[in-house]
Amino acid sequence: MLQLSNEEIVKGIRTRNKDVFEAVFKQFAPSLYNIAVRYVKDEDEANDMVQDVFLHLWKGAENLDERAPVNHYLARAIVNTCLNRIKKEKRKEVYTKEQLLNVNPIENNHSLLEHKELEARYRSAVDKLPEQCRRVFEMSRLKGLSPAEIAEQLNISINTVYAHLTTALKRLRVDLINKS
């Protein structure tokens, strides 16, 4: 393995020397990975974090301080990355818990009751439709068939299918609005 001084590493990274960067990666990535695994307890996430640190090093090469040892910089960077990831996960957990606590069971029951009531009114309105009209409507809306497929299955013209759908929608609209 190529042994470089801190000044050579900084100079090589600043000039975007890929050989130097690769040597630094090979030298320091395993120890950074071990640090990350201890913090986040997930090998894949630890690998991603090491990659992120080296990407940040490459992108910010011109800001690298030649007086500070690169290994110290990388160690501090991986620890900060881990801590930020942990904080982000904790914030997500807190937010999720808050959202669950903010759900009012009374409002939920009321919404459920309203939904069931509306569904019953809808079902009643559909049941009042003429037989063929109801069949066409259910094939279209519940089974998801196209007007052409309905026409073929019921052996009626496509215009008749459209007429039944128009009639069904008008009657449902009137029936549901009148009961509101």
Based on the model shown, name its key terms.
2 domains, 8 helices, 0% strand, 180 residues, Arc Repressor Mutant, subunit A, mainly alpha, elongated, Rna Polymerase Sigma Factor, Chain: A, single chain
Folded structure, characterized:
- The protein is mainly alpha-helical and 180 residues long.
- The chain folds into two domains: 6-102, RNA polymerase sigma factor, region 2, helix turn helix motif (Rna Polymerase Sigma Factor, Chain: A); 105-179, Winged helix-like DNA-binding domain superfamily/Winged helix DNA-binding domain (Arc Repressor Mutant, subunit A).
- The protein is 81% helix and 0% strand.
- The protein has eight helices and no strands.
Low-confidence stretches: none
Number of domains: 2
Question: Secondary-structure element sequence?
Answer: HHHHHHHH
CATH topology term of the largest domain: Rna Polymerase Sigma Factor, Chain: A
Basic shape: elongated
Span between termini: 80 Å
Largest sheet: none
Total count of helical runs of at least 4 residues: 8
Determine the mean pLDDT: 87
How would you name the CATH homologous superfamily of the largest domain?
RNA polymerase sigma factor, region 2, helix turn helix motif
Strand content: under 5%
Q: Structural class per helix/strand content?
A: mainly alpha
CATH class of the largest domain: Mainly Alpha
Number of strands: 0
Whole-angstrom Rg: 33 Å
Helix percentage: over 70%
Q: In the CATH hierarchy, what is the architecture of the largest domain at level 2?
A: Orthogonal Bundle
GO molecular function, one term: DNA binding
Family: Belongs to the sigma-70 factor family. ECF subfamily.
Protein name: RNA polymerase sigma-70 factor (ECF subfamily)
Keywords: Sigma factor, Transcription, Transcription regulation
